Amino acid sequence: MAKRCLPFLLLLQLWLQLAVSHSIVKFLPGFQGPLPFHLETAYVGVDEAQDVQLFYYFIKSQGNPKEDPLLLWLTGGPGCSSLSALAFEIGPIRFEEKEYNGSLPALVLNPHSWTQVANIILVDLPAGTGFSYARNPLAFQRRDFKQVSQADQFLRKWLMHHQEFLSNPVYIAGDSYSGLTVPAIVQKISNGNNEDMKPLINLKGYMLGNPVTDPTFDDNSKVPFAHGMGLISDELYESYKELLATYWANDDDVRKALHVQEGSIGEWQRCNFNYTREIHSSIKYHIDLGIIGYRRLIYSGDHDMVIPFLGTQAWIRSLNYSIVDDWRPWHSHGQVAGYTRTYSNQLTFATVMGGGHTAPEYKPAECFAMFKRWIIQEPL
C-alpha cells in the first residue's frame, strides 16, 4: 500500500512546489477607475524548497494575447526593480508628471506601452530586488549565475501555470546591466530545451537596450563619446521620478493592491546594488546564440554616456557578421528617429535619437514604434 502511494505523494509534492497563487489586480491606488488592461501579480518560488520568492507583474497583450509574443523583461542595475519598466519604460502606466505635494503619486496610461503588441512579464530578480525576497539568509545570493538559473526556473514554472501561453513565441529582454545576464539566460533556456526540460519554451530570440556587454568596448567608448557630444544634465529630473516611485511603492494601500507578502521586505528601493558580478563579458553568448539562429535586436539611446552607442557598435562589429542592410535612418511619425543596420545571423542594431539611459524613458513613442516593427518582423 505504501509503495502504491509513493508516486502520488511525489506528484503531490511536485505540484505543491510548482504552485503559483496569482491575483488579478483590477484597481491601483493613484489610478482613476478600473484598470483598462489585464494585470496579474504573484510570487514564484525558485531554488530548493522555494526559498527565493520572485515577485512579478504580468500584463496581457491588449492586441491578441493568444498569439502575440510573450516577453520576459529583466530590468538592469544590477538589482533594479521591474517597477522601473512598468512605470518608466515599456509598461501601460506612468506616474503623472507634476510637482509632488505629499499625497500618493497619481498614475496615468502610457499611450506607448509595449503591451499593445505583446504579453509582458516583468520580474523582480534576484531576491532583494523590488518586492522579491528570500526566506532565509542562505538563500539570499545575489550573483550573475544564480540570477541566470532563477530566471530559467521562473519562466518554466510560470508557463506550467499559464499553459495557454506555451505556444506563444517567447523573447527575453532587458536593458543596462541585463546586457550581461540576458544572453546567458537565453543560452540556459536553449540548453534546457535541447535537454528536453519541461515545459519546452518556444524561444525565438532576445532584445537588449543600452546593454552592458564588455568593459573593453563599453568603457573605452566614453571619452570619444563625450568629446563628440553636448550633454544636458538630467539629475534633477531623475531624482524627481525616483521620488515618486519610492513614495508610491512604499504606500501600504499600494502593497495591498499588488498583493505583496506582508512583512517580506522593508522599504522598497528602486535599485539594490548589493550584488556579485560573475559575467564580465557577454560577447561569447552573443556568438553562440547567433550560430543557433535566434532573432536579436540591440538598441542604444544615442545620448547615453553610461553605455555609449559607440562601444555597442564596436563589439557588434567584432562579431564579424556580414552586413545585410547598411546604415540608414529609420523613422517615426514622419521624423528621423535614429539609425539602424541589419547584419547576418538575424542581428539588428538601432540607435534611438535623443535617447538616454535607458532609451524608452526618454523616447517612448519612438521605442514603441521600433519594438512593434521588430517583434512582428517588419523592417525598422
Automatic annotation (TrEMBL):
Signal peptide segment: 1-21
Entry keyword DNA repair: no
InterPro entries reported for this sequence: AB_hydrolase_fold (IPR029058), Peptidase_S10 (IPR001563), Ser_caboxypep_his_AS (IPR033124)
Gene Ontology annotations for the cellular component aspect, listed alphabetically: extracellular region
Top-level taxon of origin: Eukaryota
Intracellular or extracellular location(s): Secreted
Major localisation: secreted
A GO biological-process term: secondary metabolic process
GO function terms (MF aspect): acyltransferase activity, transferring groups other than amino-acyl groups; serine-type carboxypeptidase activity
Record has Zinc-finger as a keyword: no
Keyword terms, alphabetized: Carboxypeptidase, Disulfide bond, Glycoprotein, Hydrolase, Protease, Signal
Protein family (similarity comment): Belongs to the peptidase S10 family.
Protein name: Uncharacterized protein
Organism: Dovyalis caffra
Lineage of the species this protein comes from: Eukaryota, Viridiplantae, Streptophyta, Embryophyta, Tracheophyta
